[in-house]
Amino acid sequence: MADPVLTSDRSSDPAPLDPASRTICHVCQKQFSQYTCPRCNSRYCSLQCYKSHSVRCTESFMRENVVEELQHVQPHDKTKRKMLDILKRLHSEEEEEEEDSMDEDGVDSLSEETIRNILSGDQISFDDLSAEERKRFQRALASGELSKMIEPWDPWWFKPSARKIRLGQEGNQLVQPINEESSSQSLEDGEESSSSNEIPPGPEAPLPPIRKLSSTEPSPLLPVHLVDIIYSYCFTLRLYNGDWRSDPIGSSMVVLSISLVLGHGGQPETVLEALSHCLEQTCSPAYKHAGGLRFGIALVDDTVSILSLGTDALICLLCDLQRLLQGAEKEMRLEKGRMPRRAEIKSQLKLARRKVYFMMCWAHEQPDEVWSSLAALVRAEKDIAVAHGESKRYAKSAEKPEGTGKVLIEEIQ
């Protein structure tokens, strides 16, 4: 795309090196002009003079160029589109602030180089920003302004294709033939070509029988533990708007902090105890900004919905959680800087990944009737939690066998 700011009109000048035939910049009145505004035909000598010659011209130019660039962004290039939206918003807001305050320091929200990269359609990362641009970005992030530009994620377990998940008899992902004609038509229409783009894939290799992983009988508490794991997975994906790959280590830390089973070495014995711990973490100061109890209740609904989908959907979920933990382990191996409690976190991730794989193999051998009964039990406990929330009463303690009487949810707002 041609940038009017950087497009010289020297080709029309009969003698570009002859000062007598050149025009002085209409803005600074100091330098010879080399460029012409495409809107008002004002002559200017630099990008700075262009920006200051007319706010109406510059704002209109920025808006139209960004819109044009976004129209050329491919549907699959979501990262570039998000960053362009964010930087455009920051630029516009900063220009408005400068116009109101009549700031004379000449500092723009975005540097000349950054603007040029945006207008050329290049992908911009946080590291590409200047120190001043990073400060403005972080202020917008802390104020919540950036969240307004993020399109809410639609969980895969609510999609119609989630009810059509089919894995092989040994729990591995089936190879599905693609209808080339229907696939190309879907792509032309801007639709996803297959459910594989919506649903996390299952295991690539067959799942071994549970007896090969352990010589003892599986614990009868595994259904309760599964509720804890499903909740922590749903919490993390909703917190990261469905994109845990943007920060595998951070998302894995969220999983470990929410899950009593994976992150705290706990073994809840009842669904109430499992949900109580998850809701306590959800309403804690660390995550209360996510929505508090209302958000937690929605996550319980997510858990019920996933259980209602059956065995194959559960395996896909657990497989995606395993990939999440593996991604964190890989990123930690590549991390060169020092990380507090590095050895401890690596050990936690490894143990959690093994638990998830064991749970996946166990779930593969369970009939769907197990999940429907478990979903009904979770739904019943959710109704109790909702009743407590509406009355703004203290939640009851999830009693332990030893009678510790520890209150897992101190107060429900």
TrEMBL record:
Residues in HIT-type domain copies: 25-57
Keyword list, A-Z: Metal-binding, Zinc, Zinc-finger
Pfam families: zf-HIT
Listed CDD domains: zf-HIT_ZNHIT2-3 (cd23024)
Record keyword Zinc-finger present: yes
Keyword Cell membrane: no
Single Gene Ontology MF annotation: zinc ion binding
Biased composition (Pro residues): 200-209
Name listed for the protein in its UniProt record: HIT-type domain-containing protein
